[in-house]
Amino acid sequence: MTKVLVVHGSRHGGTRGIAERIGAVLRTEGLEAVVAPADGRVDVSDADAFVVGSGVYMGNWLKEPLDFLDRNQAALGARPLWLFSSGPLPGSTASKGGQDPLADALGPLEGPGSGGRRKIVELSAATHPRDHRVFPGAFDPADPPRAMSERLVRMLPVSKGLLPPGDFRNWDDIEAWARGIAATLGAPVAMA
Ligand SMILES: Cc1cc2nc3c(=O)[nH]c(=O)nc-3n(C[C@H](O)[C@H](O)[C@H](O)COP(=O)(O)O)c2cc1C
User: Fold this and answer.
1) How far apart, in whole angstroms, are the C-alpha atoms of residue 138 and residue 146?
2) ∠ at Cα 152 (112, 122), nearest 5°?
3) In the predicted model, is pLDDT for residue 14 greater than 90?
4) pTM of this structure
5) Mean pLDDT (the chain, rounded)
6) Could you identify the atom of ligand 1 that is nearest to the CA of residue 159?
7) In the beta sheet, which residues pair with residue 133?
8) In b/e form, how buried is each residue of 136-147, taking b as 16+ CB within 10 angstroms?
9) How confident is the model at residue 187 (pLDDT cuts 50, 70, 90)?
């Protein structure tokens, strides 16, 4: 059975939830799916395909999934790979209007604020993902910050507009994307 490794970097659980839903859909579609956080223990050796996603903070993927991509470039580049970013909060003053979802989440390709985007461009050039999908994320102000940088951003007066609270994950879109991955991998038809 085709085995798909779904790896996520998630600070507050939003991206983990997306990864778990993708894994569940892949299983429903007849594939084997293992969902795991991006840490040093993830074994890529027996996976036939990969889905890797990260929550986006200040235009950057989290360090763990970036390190995962970097460390496993050869294995990921040799097999089918899909990337997703979980980020934009609809209504955020940081949004450029959704014309270019990657720019909305990760910033521009050049100039100030382009560092996070360029890292992903470089790693994508090395690993050849079939797609890089951007899914709206979730923000719960009651969930305490997990990093100093996040604490500082949340204290800024502008953060109210930057970080609209709510769960904006679109499960229909996420499931449809996962079904597309299963179809590409040639999954057997699921039994009713
Ligand atoms: C301090 C802070 C900064 C953020 N910066 C960005 C950003 O630059 N781009 C973006 O698309 N989303 C940004 N977000 C939204 C998060 O990516 C979104 O909340 C996501 O669902 C978080 O995923 P997680 O729960 O898996 O950590 C930010 C959220 C916070 C709290």
Assistant:
1) 15
2) 35
3) yes
4) 0.95
5) 93
6) 1
7) 84
8) bbbbeeeeeeee
9) low
| Residue 84 CA to ligand 1 centre (angstroms) | 13
The predicted-structure confidence for 153-165, as pLDDT tens digits, reads as follows 899 988 888 899 9
CA of 55 relative to ligand 1 center, distance in Å: 6
The CA R_g of the chain, rounded to the nearest whole Å, is 16
Q: How far is the CA of 137 from the centre of ligand 1 (A)?
A: 7
Mutate to test the pocket of ligand 1, among 21, 61, 89, 153 (most ligand atoms within 8 A of CB): 89
Residues lining ligand 1, CB < 6 A?
Answer: 10-16, 55-59, 86-89, 105, 137-139, 150, 153-154, 163
Helix/strand/coil for 30: coil
In this structure, the strands spanning 60-61 and 3-9 are unpaired
Provide the pLDDT for residue 190: 52
Straight-line distance from the first to the last Cα atom of the chain, in angstroms, rounded to the nearest whole number = 18
